[in-house]
## 1
Amino acid sequence: MLDGKRVLLIISGGIAAYKSLDLIRRLRERGVRVRCVLTKGGAQFVTPLSVAALSEEKVYTDLFSLTDESEMGHIRLSREADLVVVAPASADILAKMAAGIADDLATTALLATDKPVLVAPTMNVMMWAHPATQANIATLESRGVMRVGPGAGNLACGEVGSGRLAEVPEIVAAIEEFLLSGPGAVPSAAGPLSGRRALVTSGPTWEAIDPVRYIANRSSGKQGHAIAGALARLGAETVLVSGPTNLADPAGVSVVRIESAREMHEACFAALPVDVAVCAAAVADWRVARAADQKMKKDGSGPPQLELAENPDILASLSRAGEKRPRLVVGFAAETENVVEHARAKLARKGCDWIVANDVSPATGTFGGADNTVHLIGGNGTENWPKLSKEAVAERLAARIAEHFKGAA
Ligand code: CTP
């Protein structure tokens, strides 16, 4: 299915560069054309000859090679691909990408490209955790750069922790998912979900205390927005009901903006009928029973007592909507301990079909962060997914949803 797709693979310096040879083989087996750029650092770990032999293409190594420049300029090189992959991506190349430095062929191609970019970082655990690297990653991701890994484990430097290059099959899966339906791909009228309608909730809700104050939570909306985008790319007509976020509207999705849980509930029911509903919003469980019409003033009698009232449970009410019930209802469970067990209980309590359980204990950095480690609990038992970017979680979930509807009327 990937026949004729083109990847520009940039191999930067790192002990894991040898794995890029296996990556090239796996991609070639799938019919992908792989053209490689080897940085100076990368060439310390793998030879241009082995890269050329496996990719069956010329390898590009030096920006200032006049012959290469006349045969194939760096701009053409960077644009004649469906996807640019940086694997392994060292701390150094990520920093250069974030800063827009173009001092060799690889970084020049990365700056000149108009194609989507996927990075597979690898480095020492301290280097990965360093605020500079984390800031660079956040900058790159805010510009739409996709990421796979790093994983945790024994590192080549002898330390243990996060920083391992994602395993080759994981990188291949991310490339495959992208090439078949990835971000930036035009929402597909002929995708596996074409003719289906999808509803996604995302973001926090704001519950008014008075006209200027509200109760809220730290949800960024990244996961829900990514799911809406992924479903749209597979062809679903997608409505995203979102609380306040700083995110751009995903391409090809109709966005309904709301503030409170009650507004979200109403907007969701107004969007029915749908085939699938994914409730990824962090809905406030409670609202202030009687929000004040005017700003509450300090009148000297001490702090006000706020009485709370329960909000509608949108996931539970969609799951129990009788004839209007979407055929597949997917919820999220944010847990900090006994993740799978608690999520199973939640699935039963809410009456949904699948639940995506994620560990949101503070150490994981899930809230507001770029990654998610989730378990998909549903009809076929529990699937434990590796740590993935929220974009990759969305792609996988959308693919599972498409599989679920495959062949169904
Ligand atoms: N949900 C909803 N409406 C609510 C509350 C939650 O639709 N009023 C949905 C969320 O979108 C999510 C799931 O229900 O899909 C989460 O359920 P919830 O009971 O809120 O679980 P947690 O946030 O995990 O909290 P708790 O463990 O306290 O139950």
## 2
Amino acid sequence: MLGIIGAMDEEVAKIKEHMTETTIEKIAGMEFHKGILEGKDVVTVRSGIGKVNAGICTQILIDHFGVNAVINTGIAGSLRGDIKIGDIVLSTDTVQHDMDASGFGYSYGQIPRLDTLSFPADEKLIDLAEKCCREVNPHINVFRGRVVSGDQFVSEQTKKDTIANIFEGFCTEMEGAAIGQVAYLNKIPYLVIRAISDNADDTAGIDYDTFEKQAIENSAKLMIAMTAAYEG
Ligand code: ADE
């Protein structure tokens, strides 16, 4: 069983439309849509925005639905000049950019007393996503790199520069590293797929409104194609 998480309704709408035999269960205010997508058993859910929602949602997918992999699909702000609006980033790993225990000597992003700074994504899922992306989204570029997450919509150049420099992230969003942390602690493979909606700078708000729909289209299309090719 594959768990598919999107933070917002818009990010999972198309995926839910493609599902059949759907039954819905509501837990912690989240609607879990269990059914068949491209012949595979999946649970698709809108987690809500931010790290806490994403963490709760992932743990429910694991404990209650018994998923054996989790994929997060959605949009993000680019942290690099070569990653353009519409392009897709596949997480090699994820880091929480707003975790700061530097006062105790920890690196930025390091969760105190946890044995890792970043949460590595599953290499087989990355390979599969890249292959599928080239097939279904041939007009865009697909990147493999670090996804950074925080409970912040990044929309200032200075903030973006700080995050980009410290964490060497490819894109920034608000859930991926929480999903990564829960997957890591439960020893479950996971992947974050993010299409770029904005450049996480002073123009982010305007770009987001303009390009959100197209970016979601790209990531949802990939998610559906990837499910078809997924072997469990
Ligand atoms: N999701 C899409 N764009 C984002 C941004 N600039 N910051 C955080 N999350 C985002």
